[in-house]
Amino acid sequence: MSSQSVQQKKKIAIVGAGLVGALQACFMAEKGYHVEVYEMRDDIRKSEKVFGRSINLALSCRGKEALRMLGLEDEVTKNGIEMFGRMVHDYKGGTKFIPYGKENEAIMSIDRRKFNELLISAAESYSSVYINYCHKLVDCAFDRRELTFEKSETKELKTVKFDIVMGCDGAYSNLRFNIMKNTKLQYSQEYIPDRYMELRIPPNADGSFMMPKNYLHLWPRTTFMLIGLPNVPDHSFVMTLFAPYQIFESLDSDRKVIEFFRANFVDALEMMGEAFVTNAFRTLPPLPLVSVKCKPYNLEDYGVLLGDAAHAMVPFYGQGLNCGFEDLIVFNEFMEKYDHDFKKVLPEFSEYRSIDAQAMNDLAMRNYKEMKADVNSRLFILRKKLDNILYWMLPKTWVPLYTSVSFSRIRYHQCMANRDWQDKVINRAVVTLLCCTMAGLTYLGFNMGYFAKLNSRLAPWCSRVTEMINFK
Amino acid sequence: MSSQSVQQKKKIAIVGAGLVGALQACFMAEKGYHVEVYEMRDDIRKSEKVFGRSINLALSCRGKEALRMLGLEDEVTKNGIEMFGRMVHDYKGGTKFIPYGKENEAIMSIDRRKFNELLISAAESYSSVYINYCHKLVDCAFDRRELTFEKSETKELKTVKFDIVMGCDGAYSNLRFNIMKNTKLQYSQEYIPDRYMELRIPPNADGSFMMPKNYLHLWPRTTFMLIGLPNVPDHSFVMTLFAPYQIFESLDSDRKVIEFFRANFVDALEMMGEAFVTNAFRTLPPLPLVSVKCKPYNLEDYGVLLGDAAHAMVPFYGQGLNCGFEDLIVFNEFMEKYDHDFKKVLPEFSEYRSIDAQAMNDLAMRNYKEMKADVNSRLFILRKKLDNILYWMLPKTWVPLYTSVSFSRIRYHQCMANRDWQDKVINRAVVTLLCCTMAGLTYLGFNMGYFAKLNSRLAPWCSRVTEMINFK
To answer: Contact at 8 Å (CB) between B114 and B233?
Structure first.
C-alpha cells in the first residue's frame, strides 16, 4: 500500500499518443502511476481519415504478448487478419506461396488507425491517465524537470512539471532532439534511398477481397517492390510501393506511370485501376524511410525513450511495432525486478534493451534486401527449405531466423547470433565437402599415374634436396 | 567587372569564427563577397586565456597549402615548430624514434589560440569582412533566408538575412542541428569511450625545452596514452592524456593519480611536477571526443557545412584542421569550375568532398588504435620498415598511408584505398609463400616415401574405383 501511494505521487509524462505511447500509458496506469500524455495531433478518433500516409501493421508474437498482458489481445486481433506467408507475384501475374513458418504460424495484418483508436480508448479508460491533444513539445528544461508545449490552436505555451518523462514520439522524436542537445548521445539516422507510396486495391463489388486474403502479397522486382496487406474493416488491400526516389522522379507523367505498372505489376494495376494509380502519383508525395539508432535510451533516472523514438527501423521485417511493444514488456520486467527504483530501472533497461533493438534494426535493413531481391533467387528458396528441414530435425537448435524473430520472444540479438552461427555451419559444411572431394581426386590422380611425367622430372631434384638436408 | 559586382551584392553569412570560419571569410572576401561572420564567443584576442581545453594542432601539407593560397603560410608557420616523427617513451623513460616519413618530412605543432588570433586578424584586414562577436545562433528560417542570433550580453534577439550561409561552427554545430530538423540529413555522432585532459610540461628555468623539441612525444600504454607537442611561444609542451572515462573516474585521489603516473609516465611526471598533475585532476573535467559524419554538406543552393561542422573527427591523425582547410581549397576550386553558380557549386562540392572527409574520419578512428597499441608491437615497426623500403623502390606506387595523408594532397579516399590495396598485396604474398612451402614439403614427402604405408593400403581401393569409373 505504501509503495502504491509513492507511485501515485509520481507524475509520468508521456510524449506521444501513438501505439507505443498509448500502450505505455496503460502499463504505467496499471502500476498505479498518474500519467499525463501529450500528443501533438488532435484525437484521431474525431479527426478525418487521411489517405496515403500509413503502412499497414504486421502484429506478431512480441506485440501480441504485450497486448495480452493488459487484456487487450482479443479486442485488437478481432480487427485483424492472419497472413500465413508471402504470396509472390511474377511479372505475368502468376503466384508462388512461401510460408513464414510452420502451418499454423501467422502474422496479423491490422489497420494502423483502428489499432491506435483502440489503444487510446483503452488508455483513457484508466482514471489516472489524461491525454492532452494538440500539444507540441517545443522545449525541455531537464534540470528543472519541465517540458514546454505549444497548443496548436492558440499557439499558447504551457510548461508542465514531471518526475519521469517517456519519449514515445516516434522516429522524428522531439524529446530525443532535446536530449541530444544536452547529453552525450550516441546517435545515427540513415535515410535509405527508397521512398514509399501508399496505394489501394478496393474490395470487389460484393464486398469480398480481390486477392486471397490470408497472405502478404509481394511483387519483388530487384530494385523496387510492391507489397499488399489485407485490411479487415473494408476488405481492401493496403498496397505500398517501395522504390528509389529516382524511380518516383522519373514517373512524371500518367503515361510513364501506366507503362511502369504494366511492365512490372500488371495484375495489381488491373485491380487498382489505372485512374486510381495515376491520380495517386499526381497527388501523393513519395515519403522517406529512416533508420534511427541511439544509446543510451535513458536520461539519468528521469527520462527514457521507447519505440521508434529510440530505434526507428525500416519497415521490411514488420517488427517496428512489435519491437516497440516488447520495449514495454521489458521495461515492465525491470520495474518489477528493481521495485520501481528508477535510478536502477532506467539505465539497466537501456543497457539491456538497446542491444536487442539495434540487432532488430540491422535485421530489418538486411530484410530490405531479401524482400526486394533474394525471394526471387533459387538459392534463397533452397536455403529456406534446408532451414525448414533442419528445424524439423532439430527443433530446439536450428530455429530459422524469421521464425525466431516473428514467432518467439528469443532476444533479437540472439536471433541474429543464431543466424550468423547457422550461416557459418553451412559454409563450413560446404567448404569441407569441397576440400574432401578435391583431396580424393588428387589422391586418385597420383595413384592413376597422372603425375608420372612430372614425377620423373622432379625426382632427381628431390633426391638431391633430400640428401642435402639429410632427411634420411 | 559585372560578375564581381554581382558577388559583392551577395551576402555570405559564416557561422563561427574558429580557424575554418576565419579562413573561409578570407577566401570569400578574396572572391569579392561581402562576408558577415557570427561568433558565439567574444573576440579571443581580447579574452583571457583559459587553460585545459585545447589540443595542440598539427599542421601538415593540406593545411599549409590553404594558407599559402592566401599568403598566410609564413606568418603562421613562424609561430610553429616542426616535428619529424614520434618519440616513443617506454615505462622507464627510455625513448625510441619513429620517423613520419622521409628525412625532411615533418608536421608542424602550432598553438591553437595564437593561430586563431592570426586568422581573425587576417579576416578583419579585408574591408568586406565584418565579425560579429557574442552572437549565438538560436533559430533558422531557411525558407526566408533568415538567421536569428542572441547577443550574449543583452540577451537581445537579432534576425539577419543571408544569401549563402556557411556553417563553420564546429563539432556541435548549431547550424547543422537546424538543418537536421528541416531536411533529410544522413547523420551520425559517436562519442568514443575515451576522454582527454590537457596537462603541461613547463620550459626549463633558462627558457629552453625540457625534451627534444622536434618530435611528437608519445607514451602509448595499450588502453590509454599520453602525448606531448612542443609549443613555440613559451617552449613548454602541451600534454594530453587520452584514457577511457573509467580510468579518469578511478583516479579520485591525489595518491591514486600519482601512483598511476609513476607506473606509466614516470619521466613525464617528473617534468610536469606532482603538484601540477594532482591539481589538474582535482580541477579539470576530462573532456569528451566525438566523431561526426553527415551528408549532404549542402543545403540546396544556399547553405553549406565546412570543417568540423561537417565531419568532426577524433584527433588521432592530426588531420581535423588540415581536412577542414582542404575543404576550403576544394570549395574554392568548385567556385572557379562553376563560375560562382551556387546551384552547382554547393551540391557538387558536397558530393565530391564528403567521400574524402568520411574516409579521413575512418582513418582517424583507425589511428586511434594504432597510436595506443600498435606502435609498441614489432609487427607494426616491421610493417613500417617494409613500407619505407617499398616506397624507396616504388616511389610512385607504394606511398605509405601516413605519407599520403600528411605529406601529399592525394584525395583521402584514395589514400585509404591505396592502403587497403597494399594490405591485400602483402597478405597475398604471405599466403602464396606459405602455400608454395606447403606444396613443396608435400611433394618431397611423397617422393621420400612418407606416404608409402597409406599408399599401399589405399591402392587396391583406388584401382577398383578407377576400373568402375573406367578412367583408363
So the answer is: yes
- Short-list B13, B9, B33, CA closest to B21: B13
Q: CB under 8 Å to B372, separation ≥6 — which residues?
A: B220, B221, B222, B223, B224, B225, B242
Q: A47: number of CA atoms within 13 Å, CB side?
A: 13
Among residues A164, A191, A188, which one has the least CA distance to residue A28?
A164
Backbone angles phi, psi at A217, to 5 degrees: -85, 140
Among A201, A271, A266, smallest CA distance to A239 is for A201
Phi first, then psi: give them for residue A82, nearest 5 degrees.
-80, 140
Q: Return the domain boundaries, chain A.
A: 2-365, 373-429, 434-468
Nearest residue of A to residue B472, measured between CA atoms: A448
Preceding amide of A296 cis, omega within 30: yes
Q: Give one word for B62, left, alpha or beta, with left for phi > 0 and alpha for psi -120 to 50.
A: alpha
Q: In this predicted structure, what is the pLDDT of residue B394?
A: 83
Least confident of A37-51, A346-360, B377-391: B377-391
Nearest 5°: CA angle at B304, between B298 and B310?
90
What value does the mean pLDDT of chain B take? 89
- Domain B2-365: which CATH number of 3.40.640.10, 3.40.50.300, 3.50.50.60, 3.90.1150.10: 3.50.50.60
Q: State the Rg of chain A over Cα.
A: 28
Secondary structure class of B99 (helix, strand, coil): strand
Instruction: Note if the bond before B286 is cis, omega within 30 degrees.
Output: no
Instruction: Verify whether the Cβ–Cβ distance A187 to B187 is below 8 Å.
Output: yes
pLDDT, tens digit, 9 for 90 and up, residues A231-248: 988 899 999 999 999 999
Of B288, B447, B472, the CB nearest to A459: B447
Assess contact for B404 and B418: CB atoms under 8 A: yes
Q: Are B339 and B329 in contact (CB under 8 A)?
A: no
Check CB contact under 8 Å for A448 and B471: yes
Find the range with the poorest average confidence among A32-46, A392-406, B255-269: A392-406
Which residues does B contribute to its contact with A (CB < 8 Å)? Answer: 177, 180-181, 184-191, 288, 290, 443-444, 446-448, 455, 458-459, 462-463, 465-466, 471-472
From CA B226, how far away is CA B87, in angstroms rounded?
A: 12
Please count the helices (runs of H) and the strands (runs of E) in chain B: 17, 19
* B27: nearest Cα among B296, B369, B392, B349: B349
Res B50: pLDDT: 65
pLDDT confidence of residue B471: 43
A188: nearest CB among B188, B444, B472:
B188
CA distance A146 to A139: 9
Which residues of A fall within a CB distance of 8 Å from B180? 177, 189
Residue matched to cell numbers 597420383: A446
